[in-house]
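LAB NOTEBOOK - FOLDING QUEUE
OPERATOR: T.R.
BATCH SIZE: 2
PURPOSE: Compare the predicted structure-token outputs for two unrelated chains run back to back under identical settings.
PRIORITY: normal
REVIEWER: second-year student, initials M.K.

ITEM 1
FIELD SEQUENCE / FIELD STRUCTURE:
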Amino acid sequence: MNEFALYFHYPFCLNRCYYCNFTSSVLDESVAERYRQTLIKELLLRSDEPPWKDGTIRSIYIGGGTPSLMPAEYVNKLLLLIRDCFNYPPDIEVTIEANPGAIDAESLSAFHEAGINRISIGAQSLIENELRQLSRIHTSKDIHAAVLAARQAGIYNISLDLMYGFTGQSVNSFTESLNRALELDIKHLSTYALSIEGSTEKLSPPQNSSQPTPDPDLAADQYDALCSIMKKAGFDHYELTNFALSGFQSHHNWTYWRSIPYLGLGVSAHSFDGKNRSWNIPIIDEYNERLERDALPQETVEILSMENVQTEQVYLGLRTSDGLTMTEFEHIINPRELAEMVDSGFLIVSDGTILVPEERWLLLDDIVLKLLSKCDKIA
């Protein structure tokens, strides 16, 4: 069966956070309306080409940006079109991202009626001064209100995002955010260490010393506290940065971590068909113009070798609690390095599966480099 996940990128926000490295723009409703129409056009064009044609959807994720700003009737139209274009199993996971302060109870009820059954709320912190440092426009009260409104709308699969590792935050303040988040009876938590990369630096005025910057030592201490608190709360640490109660792991993210095909629609969205990776142009106006000419907005197609694919599978597999199946990858793994890292506690081999212990996950990049070092190239 030709199964794949479907991702939509909605790049508009009420304001642009200085550290954001995603393609996003401050909301201009006329630009957004044009974009919503071209997004539908891309869906229709891509649904008629292999390997997506006649495929079965595994999960749907509407990300951004702030897609909760989309009109509810548009979300309904989008999900109805997906049903027309692809095989749409009942009870699949359909997620929308939302920012507190950019969502209301009426919209949430309409989203749920349209088919949204999971929400990912970008809280980032539940400490007021940290929210101001991160240039967020919401308050901790808004976070509480968003969670309550989602639950009242019938969306019980609720995930929060929290950020850590920035100056001005402490281990204690981060653990306070965690504990406040857990009091909201969430089912899933995604965590991110602050990272300022490339073009995002220009959004943070260098003369403003109060802006939070990454602190790797702080992040490591906070990560240790994070793992401990979430374990005590009964959450499964099922991936490097993600925690879930039993049965609430993100189906969509598992698609990426297991190298299952996915189709990304929208500006800058990435796709993977099982062999090749492609991504769309990152400029909203150019994306719109191409689709208005009935031209696909792809910027680049990367043809992956078997070595590329399997190297990525090693990295992605080892960042999950499921790990890797030994027999599947032993031909590219350095046996000497594997034995040494098992002896030193950096890896575990159990029942034919290779795992990275939770306390070593922050060293994942180095572990993978060693594990794949000095191996014969895959034919």
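ITEM 2
FIELD SEQUENCE / FIELD STRUCTURE:
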Amino acid sequence: MWSDHQSFVHGDATPTNFIFGPDEETLTAIDFERLHVSDAMYDIGLFAAELKHHFALRIHNAAAAEPFIKCFLEHYFQATDKQEESYSDFTFRNRFYMALGELRIARNPWLPFGHREWLIHEAGRCLET
């Protein structure tokens, strides 16, 4: 599971810390105070957790995030040209970091308590084999 190379990661990969340009090629990251060296999947998992959280909180349908998460993972995997890792290994590693992201989001006291409980349960579900 820990086979990826260490690299710089944003550390706070939330939708509000990225500015999406007018085309599909432009993306600007901002707010680097949590930048550190880690597994490259760290940011990918956090971003996937954020997507699921926002769909659950804003439109009350966490499952609606799944196609977007799947598309995000597929595009990232293809762009990285990971010869040594299968897509299933890649998504398996994502589950750990996605659970970590959901637990991190659940710490926010301004979120409704029921949603925070759901995030904790969802994190556990991510880790089930």
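REVIEWER COMMENT (ITEM 2): Residues 87-106 form the longest helix (20 residues).
FOLLOW-UP: none requested
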